[in-house]
Amino acid sequence: MNVKIQYTIDLEGVPEEVRRLLPVIPDWKNDLGDIYSALEGEVNLLKVMEDIENIRKSMLMADTRLADCQAILEGYNRVKSGDFDQAPAPESAPEEDMSQTLEKGREMLKQLQAGMPAPPPTEKQENDTAS
Question: What pTM was estimated for this model as a whole?
Fold first, then answer.
């Protein structure tokens, strides 16, 4: 399972931090060469499929790290250029989901209120009824 991490560094240290985060890319050319060779003659399909799966996992890890570096540099570029208006909007639920959630909350409130005794009158209400 992958998790996102977040930490703070000085703005001028961002490029160096991205350099540190860049993935070390394995030489997939050699791995693919091994797969080509393994597909000649007697083929161990399970081994070939395992090798392919390992290459794909390695590529996914590299792609994920590159996407992280790209997102960091996009934010860095926005700050350096003073273009704060283009910050990505926070993800939010679609309006219909929010209205459904609100309606469910109202229904739950009604159910709770129906099962609760009436609250005692406030001091103002007691004074109004006494007059």
Answer: 0.56
